[in-house]
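QA checklist item 7 of 12: single-chain prediction sanity check.
[x] sequence parsed
[x] length recorded as 64
[x] structure emitted
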Amino acid sequence: MGRSTACPGEECPFWKDESCVIAPLRAQFTEDACLVTVLAGVRAQATKRAPDHALREFHPPGLA
């Protein structure tokens, strides 16, 4: 997205068991701007809807 920000850690809905669940996709972030945009949007929406970290057990469809 053309910018860098510090990882919010436990405040992020993609954080589980003391690690980032999307970290394995890091190499694709520089190659796939669409992926970055989608993940940023998902994180923003999830944070707004579940600030109490209710998404800790979130699994995308087909991955549950």
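[x] summary fact logged: Residues 9-57 form one domain.
[ ] second reviewer sign-off
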